[in-house]
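Aspartokinase (Marinilabilia salmonicolor), 418 aa
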Amino acid sequence: MQVSKFGGASVKNAEAVKNLLEIVNHLDKSQVIVVSAMGKMTNAFETLIQYYFSGEKEECKAQLKFIKEFHNNIILDLFGDLQHPMLSAFWECVRQLEVKLEQLPSMHFDYEYDQVVSFGEIFSTHIISAFLNTSGVNNKWVDVRHVLKTDDLYRDANVDWLMTEELMERTFSFTETSLYLTQGFLGGTFSNISTTLGREGSDYTAAIIGYVLNAERVTVWKDVPGILNADPRIFPDAQKIDSLSYAETIELSYYGAQVIHPKTLKPLQNKQIPLYVKSFLDRELPGTVIRQESPKIPVPVFILKKDQVLLTLSPRDFSFITEENLSRILALFSQNHVRINLLQTSALNFTVCVDRKDSFVKMVEQLKEFYSVRYNDQVELLTIRHYNQEVIDEKLKDRVVIDSQVTRKNARFVLQSS
């Protein structure tokens, strides 16, 4: 069997859903299809939960109306009738959301987030499952919250692997059908309370299912021809990489490349299940395959992280940067959820490049209690992996370099924003 995952861009409108139908028609038998919320609906549901949680009733009603109209338009394009008999399960879920939003929220935002935002995936999969069935592609809709069991760490839930394996093996038996359709991003507690799996949760869902069911392969369908060596919006000469190892992909992700999140790769790596990244715009293209072993990447990889801050700390008493100082500094970064993208230390200085985010200002004030703090904002971090001097010279032309760090495989430069 195989697992295919379709993200929001691949189901953003009726034409995209029809394209998904064409892809599914050409897939091998015995498939589990994992689908995200449609288009930018996760963002729309995030706006809805903000209004709901803060008690802005009129704004909440207006946002719910927007969400319903978005899905209604897709339904009309696909079925020609909002009350098509195959859509009864969808409308029941709409009523469940309406009832939820009439209740007072709890004091726990992350809990409420998971209960509301999860409807994005539930809506999309009900619509798509019904459309496939009416188009002659018989499938069984599965509520992933009943088979992917997690703890109650809302918005970043941890998988209970033993319970999940037992439930998935029983549910995805392929005795009733050769095609199952389910949701990405979601899980459920033992009490069947909705949870979400955090960043890249839909890819992770596909990997979990692939791992449990011993899939031959997992395919992630995107709007690019595969994994590229750079963001084509920044580097117009970006090239597709045909093959990557799990280890190399994890390295690229660590440095900020928008590839596949390491948590998605780990279960696949454990069973050496290949992961394919393919284009839903042209299913015939070979895409990129990620597997245990892979040839060396033939081109350098460029990763540019914008909106960075270069922060330098020095002890106020001119003492050395000791293990005690490092421990205190890193604890503050962790407590404020500020990710360190580059780190350098000397006897008297501790320098990091970090993402600029709301908690950064609060963290700086905390650091000032113990350290002298200097920082440059409006900087960018360029990582060149598998570099050579010619490539470095080309990419740094006309750029102001503030700091740098070079190792055998990586050359990293903090640049003044262009």
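The first strand starts at residue 2 and ends at 6. The mean pLDDT is 95. ok done for today
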